[in-house]
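Progress against Task 2.4 (sequence-to-structure conversion) is shown through the following example record, which the project officer requested during the mid-term review.
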Amino acid sequence: MGIAGGVGSRLARLLTAAGDRVDGLYRRHEQGESLKADGINATYGDLAELDASAFADLLNDTDVLVFAAGAGGKGGTRAVSAIDGAGLTTAIEAAHLSGVRRLVLVSVFPEAWRGLEVSDTFEHYIDVKKKADATLAATDLDWIILRPAALTDDTGSGRISLAPALVHTQIARDDVAATLAELVHAPQIRREILELAQGPDTIRDAVSRQTLS
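Structure tokens generated for the chain above:
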């Protein structure tokens, strides 16, 4: 989910290039055209309008469901609740219905952007994301909750810090996507909450270290 977003589209390109079968929802036709131009398979649809059964029908033969969808600050509190909150609940129900065991959620640092000027909907966003984390963590799925630091559009460095608790700094979307791609291919990492920020380790080394913990 979120295949047309800043992190999701980057992840889709990486997984497609690696030979994985990729699919996801896009809401605007120009998004679909852009994804198609990059050789990425995607499906037209709106997460906020799907029920769990309809969602499950889209998950045939899916090994890993990555939930990178988000309102992105658009549409106010209603959109945040519908996509970041209820959207994840629908995804969880769909995973159960379709037999998908692995669900990777792109979340947010709980203390993200504290001390900076933020929108009126920011605290609502943080509250919804925290409740979404708790909802997923309470399931029997093989989940991973990834909490990136403040996102930038800088070119990724390929070097990160990945741990259960980090100091909030920032991280390039390129590096978030690359970390997700590694996690998708690391099924032994399960039922873990991991925070992600810029750091000294290569992405492969940082993810491999989690397989040993």
